[in-house]
Fold this protein.
Amino acid sequence: MNLWKGLVQRKDKVSKQIKDIGCKELVRIIQTYVKEKKVILEYARAVLVISIEDGMKIFCDNDSVNQIVSEDDIIYYLESMETLAPNSKEKYLDYLVAKKGSEERFHTLLGIHHVNKIKEAMKKSTKTIPEVLQESSVAQAIKGLNNFFKSSINYNPQAILDAIKGLGLFDEEIKLYEMQKMHIQAISSLVEKGKQSINFIQAEQYCLKQEESLLANLFSKILDLYIDAKNRYIVKDNDKSPSPGAKSEIDALKRYMYGYEEYCRNFIKKYAANEKMNAEEVLTILPDDWALKDLREGREDESLFTYLCLTLNDRLAKQMNYAIAKNISENHKLDLESEHLELQKAYIYVGEKNMCKACNKVLGQKYYAIYPNGTVTHAQCAKDIQVCPVT
C-alpha cells in the first residue's frame, strides 16, 4: 500500500495514467483487506487528492468499509478534506440522499451544504445583496440549492429556512414557508415585497393556489398598510411646525394611502364571490369610514357597494342551493321509506304443490330462497343469492 501511496503522491513527472492506476489499486486494497478506520482514512486521503471519483468508491456501496467507518465519520472527514478535495462532501451526501430510505438528516445536511456554498460565494464580493445575487458564482450556488429542492422533499424545511435568513433568497424562503404551511409568514413577506410598488399579485397567486382560505388574511395585511399610511399622513398633515421636506413626505404618504385604499377596494370587488375569501372575516375589518360609494375628489368608486352586493348574492345563492338540496334529499328519503313499507307488505304463498323455479321439482321443504322478483327456489338451488336463476 505504501508503494502505491508513494506513487500517486510523487511530485516528479509521473504520468496521470500511472497515478490513476495507483488510485484504483489503493481503492481495491482498502475495499478488500483494510480493517482499521485510521488506515482507511489515511490512504483514502491520497486517492481523493488525485481522483475524487475513485475516492468516492472507497465509501460508497462498500459494506466492508461502511461497517468500520460510520456515515457521520465519513461526512466529518470529507468536510476536513474540502480544500484538498473540493465537493467531495457534496458528492457523498448526494450518494446518501439517493439511497432508498435515506435519513432526513442527510437530506437536510445536503441542503444546508448548498446554503453554505452560497454564503461562501457571497463573502468574496463587496456588493450589496441584490447585486451580489446576480454574480455568476453566487447564481450558480443558488441554482445548486434549487436543484436540491427539486430532487428532494425529505428534508427539514425549518432548518434550511433558518440557514438562508438574511441572504436575500426571497423565492426560496417563500417555498420553505409554504412547505411548512406557514402561510401567514409567507403572506407577510410577499406583502412586504410588494408594498413599495403597491403590487401584490404574487401574494394573490400564492393564496389562490393553497387549499386554505387565505385571501381575507392577505386583504387584512394590505388594509394594515393603508391604515398605517393614513394615520401617518394625518399626523404629518396636521403638524403646525413642519420640518424641511415635509411636503414631499406628506405627498408620498398621501399617494400610498390612496394607492393602498384603491388596491383594497378593487381586491374585495375582485374576490367577492371567491370561495377562498372569507366574507365574515372581511366584514369585521372593513373601515367604518368607508362609504358604499366613494365620490371624493371626483372619484366614482362603487367597489364596496359592488362587493356587498356580490357577497350577499353569493350567500343567498348558496343558501338557496342548500335548501333545494335539502328538499331533494328529504323527498328521496320519503320515497325510500315508502318503497321499504311496500316491500314489507309483500308476501308469497307457498303450498304443497308449488314448484321450484330452478329445478321444476316440488318445493316441499322447510327452507326456501325467495328473490325480490317473486321467484321461489329450493335453498340448494339458489347458487347466487344476488342473481335470480330463472331471469
Remarks:
- The mean pLDDT is 84.
- The beta strands are 368-370, 376-378.
